[in-house]
Amino acid sequence: QLQASGGGLVQAGGSLRLSCAASRSTFSISAFGWYRQAPGKQREFVARISGGSSTNYADSVKGRFTISRDNAKNTVYLQMNSLKPEDTAVYYCKNFLFDFWGQGTQVTVSS
Fold this sequence. Notes:
By secondary structure, the protein is an all-beta fold. The protein contains no helices and eleven strands. The strands form two sheets. Strands 2, 4, 5, 6, 9, 10 and 11 form a seven-stranded mixed β-sheet that branches. A four-stranded antiparallel β-sheet has the order 1-3-8-7, with no helix packed on it.
């Protein structure tokens, strides 16, 4: 089970940190990712972190977003800085090992 949290309303230029808590004992070997879906658009990739903490990002968020993990807390984070109105979306976390999605958390960035 994946539990995402941390979304909210923020002004452009602000920051938010999303969290995705997992309940499986296989957390430390699982790769996780964040995706987002804006109204009327397809879900798109945002960031991914491997079990060894290698990361990759969508071009649209490089240099602004940072994905990280805390294996002791079974939690994956997405630190989002310099937010833009176009970052507004529902953000979802995904466990790649089991191809499992968590519920989304809404991020709204006002101009």
